[in-house]
Amino acid sequence: MSTAQQTIASQVSSQPSTVLLLFLENGGRAGGVDLPAWAAQAMDRFTQAYARTAVQLQARRHYGLIVVLEEEQATAARLWQALLDAGDATVDLLLLVHGQVGYACGHGDDRVGADFFAGLRSLRAAGLAPFRLRAVYQMNCYGQSLAAEWLSIGAQAVNGSAGVNWLPEPSLSVFLRSWLGGATFEQAVQRSYRAASRVLGLVWRPQPTRAGVQHPHDKIASSRMKVFGNGELQIG
């Protein structure tokens, strides 16, 4: 077992009743823009440090354990193991990564996709994966394409964007403040989308049609979030 694996295993050995999993990988990418290597590295480090700090500061009082999977640990295999190591704890998952239709992208574009979900469904059917997956908050692009998969492994509520998600912030901060403050999952997700679309809408202005009707900019519309499962779910 590697040092990183031993660290994760020791984190969950006490079997807390609630676990927050943070699956975090930016990869230095921004909306498909081809950045210089130095700029990509700087963006990767800054965005991940910001997200990690924001989550830990806001969430530490609400969970028995916070497990951060980032950089080389942000892989489907490590996420799989973290879920199994959670035992029968209630688990919330923050998926702060890129994505394509049918999968989320971990480190080195490692895929959390069909094989990941099929394997966990098999383990759960055999009674070998007792974790209780409560809420999955996805910031990955095309998150809606994974909604049914998360529900199939027991998630009670999950969100996802229709297409490319152009609204990373203040979406995350608003969602955490609302969700941890007692709002329902639906309320927290939609508040975060509205806040981010207002801010970024100052840059990506509404687009008029030939009839003169104002429609949200394509990037705002692409980022629209939908909730699947129990939208009335609350943290407790």
What does this 3D model show about the protein?
The chain contains 8 helices and 10 strands. It has a domain at 3-165: Rossmann fold. The strands form 2 sheets. Strands 1, 2, 3, 4, 5, 6, 7 and 10 form an 8-stranded mixed beta sheet that branches. Strands 8-9 form a two-stranded antiparallel sheet. It is globular and about 60 Å long. The chain has 236 residues and is α/β, with parallel strands linked by helices. 39% of the residues lie in helices and 22% in strands. The longest helix has 23 residues, at 37-59. β4 (103-105) and β5 form a beta hairpin.
Quick structural gist:
This protein is of the alpha/beta class and 236 residues long.
Note the topology.
Blueprint (H helix, E strand, L loop, with lengths): L2 H10 L5 E8 L11 H23 L5 E6 L5 H10 L4 E11 L2 E3 L5 E2 L1 H12 L6 E7 L8 H6 L4 E5 L9 H10 L4 H16 L6 E2 L5 E2 L2 H5 L2 E5 L7
Parallel strand pairs: 1-2, 1-3, 3-6, 6-7
Antiparallel strand pairs: 3-4, 4-5, 7-10, 8-9
| Percent in strands | 15-25%
Q: Estimate the helix proportion, in percent.
A: 25-40%
CATH fold title of one domain = Rossmann fold
CATH class of one domain: Alpha Beta
| Helical/strand content category | alpha/beta
The CATH architecture term of one domain is 3-Layer(aba) Sandwich
Parts with pLDDT < 50 across at least 5 consecutive residues: 28-40
Overall shape: it is globular
Distance between the termini: 36 Å
What do the pLDDT scores average to?
86
C-alpha Rg (nearest Å): 18 Å
Task: Please tally the β strands and state the result.
Answer: 10
Strand/helix succession: HEHEHEEEHEHEHHEEHE
Individual helix count: 8
Main beta sheet strand tally, sense and closure: 8 strands, mixed
